[in-house]
Write the structure tokens for this entry.
Amino acid sequence: MQNRIAVLVALAGVALLLGLSAPVRAGGADGPSAKEAQAVLAKAMNFLKSRQTADGAWAPKVAGPGVTALVVAGLVKNGVSPNDPTVARGLKYLEQNIQKDGGVYSKFLANYTTSVAIMAFQESNKDGKYDGVLKNAAKFLKGIQFDEHNSDEKDKKFGGFSYDGKKAPDMSNSAFALEALLAAGLPKDDPAVQKALKFMSRCQNLKGEFNDQPFAQKVAQDDVGGFVYVPDLEDKRHVTAAGGLRSLGGMTYGGLKSFLYAGVSKDDPRVKAAVNWVRRHYTLEENPGMGQAGLYYYYQTFGKAMQAWGEDPFADADGNAHPWRRELFDALKKRQQADGSWRNDGDKTFGEAQPELATAFAILSLSYCEVTKR
């Protein structure tokens, strides 16, 4: 039960912007070679094969079809064929979890598991095999979004997504859902996409026209531009000494990639502020604001956001140029266990002590490391 509760939280030019003007110092090679990446992936594949259940799942008792979807998406994004026996069994298991309402879930985590299942099906959608599945799953997600049917546009919940459409929405659920809706084929101007962006803007520590919440008036300077988990001062875990809410690494990269995926301009003040938060807090040693908790969740949002932003190398606030693909790969490689897995021992917040979950996030992160995958 404790592991299940933990996973509920998880499945959670180089010109400097806004006045930063330090000189850029050269970095090293941009990313690992295909040979290097494949060696790491091969070890991970051996572990995953050893942990796949007879019906094709990974950790089904912990997260229903959620971990399975992450594994399938990660493997296919790394070049493994949907026809590979391991992947094919995983896809069959996901198909068996498609509900009559279009969602892909078992007993819990309906938003998370449907969202990551959409990613897996979209990556594996050869010859339109999953077109209908994707359409129905997107319809399900739109049906559990907080909108004019169950909240007022001025309400901080408006546009957000929660675990099930009933509990309060949060930044993590919303980022996964938005990515899934776009992957399923929704246009960027779809009302559901625009509503989600409205909620996410209220999650950003940025005072102004996009965030009318009280905490945005009390942002510590170092938090400006970052994203919070929930836009609510009742979330006492993240209240700052100034009376605002603390910015978190995983949420900030999730917010940045969401804006960019949805077509928000790189010149938009929200994007500029988020990128400058990243410049000030660039690291692959921890999940900023959370320490080691959710490290592999953080890595996959880091990879997605960095690829979408497209700055290679990436300049931090001190002017250091980071070959981020190489640095992400090195961070993953040095943490891989002898059996090919990754695990985050002691992580009770995101559930990454479960090696199947940590490994799923790790291989998804790995798919953003190679230059050829851009």
Notes: Confidence is low (pLDDT under 50) at residues 1-28. The two ends are 39 Å apart (CA to CA).
